[in-house]
Specification:
The chain is mainly α. The protein contains twelve helices and six strands. It has three domains: 111 residues, no CATH class; 41 residues, no CATH class; 91 residues, no CATH class. Helix 3 crosses helix 5, helix 5 packs across helix 6 and helix 8 packs across helix 9. It binds zinc ion (2 copies). One zinc ion binds next to strand 6.
Length: 300
């Protein structure tokens, strides 16, 4: 009996410490966020930093960061956690609905209602919260995708389904329909595919007898303004960079892990045009916007 009581007391103390540390971590994350400190370590987001550097699980990182961000607007949220009247999973649930006007009501509800009852209240407030985008593996090569879409989009997908069925001569299912949409979109819009297409075509035309490219053939794109002069990267070079870097950020962090962000990417001149750098394949690299900004802040 004595040992059980001792174990119980230890557990109580650990749980108390655990909650205290959690609320401290929320405060620290808020400060790191304000200072954009994750850049300093080569990460592009606080989430990436929390997962890769602090080794939090994605779920923990998401919960703590969303609570810390919401607490700027509603400080009572993190105060309730530090006082032990609310735990972080209760707090995370109400992040999407709590405001300075309704804070007391939501904090009270999350303390008293069961999880299901609380979800019901949240959905009534914000119907979109009912379905969170989710991908889970069913088999190594198959995922289950859950997301909420509008009725209008559903009708558009149904229309595509009819066309795909018509074209293949048999009834298409939803997966085949989405596949057809994705293939068509990537064929038209993927800059890597476009670069490969253009470069292949240029190779065909580059035999001496057919050489005909001039500035009009290489449509130019404005990339900036240095000392009043417009600087442009020739399309040919842009396509070659796209093909080489596969549209991914090439920045490497301190331990040489590549960033590989494929969203919001920029082209960066290692040696700036203003300092005599050229629009050449060797001088241009692909960077995501955050790392691009980070590099410029470090250089200048
Ligand atoms: Zn740059
Ligand atoms: Zn990057």
């Amino acid at each position: 009996m004595n040992t059980i009581q001792q174990l119980h007391e230890k557990a109580l103390q650990c749980a108390k410490d655990f909650l205290k540390l959690e609320s401290e971590l929320i405060n620290i994350l808020q400060e790191l966020d304000d200072k954009k400190a994750f850049f300093h370590f080569g990460y592009t987001s606080l989430f990436q930093y929390a997962v890769s550097s602090l080794k939090l699980s994605e779920g923990q990182a998401y919960a703590l960061i969303s609570i810390s961000r919401k607490s700027r607007e509603v400080p009572e949220l993190k105060e309730a956690i530090s006082q032990g009247t609310l735990n972080s999973s209760q707090a995370r649930r109400i992040v999407s609905v709590i405001t300075p006007d309704n804070k007391n009501e939501w904090i009270a509800m999350s303390q008293t209602l069961s999880q299901r009852e609380l979800e019901k209240k949240i959905v009534a407030e914000r119907p979109k919260e009912a379905v969170r985008d989710k991908m889970t593996y069913l088999q190594p090569s198959q995922v289950k995708l859950v997301c909420g879409i509008s009725e209008e989009l559903m009708k558009e997908i149904e229309r595509v389904k009819e066309i795909v069925s018509q074209n293949t001569g048999r009834p298409a299912n939803l997966e085949e329909t989405l596949k057809a949409m994705a293939t068509l979109y990537l064929e038209r819009k993927d800059p890597i595919k476009k670069a490969e297409r253009v470069l292949e075509k240029k190779q065909l035309f580059s035999s001496p007898s057919l050489k005909r490219e001039g500035p009009s053939f290489l449509s130019l794109r404005r990339v900036g303004n240095s000392q009043g002069k417009r600087t442009t990267i020739p399309a040919q070079i842009r396509h070659e960079v796209m093909k080489r870097d596969r549209g991914q950020c090439t920045f490497k962090d301190k331990v040489a892990n590549p960033c590989q962000n494929k969203r919001w990417i920029d082209l960066h001149h290692k040696k700036p045009i203003a300092d005599g750098g050229e629009h050449s394949l060797n001088n241009i690299i692909t960077l995501c916007r955050q790392h691009h900004r980070f590099l410029h802040q470090r250089i200048f």
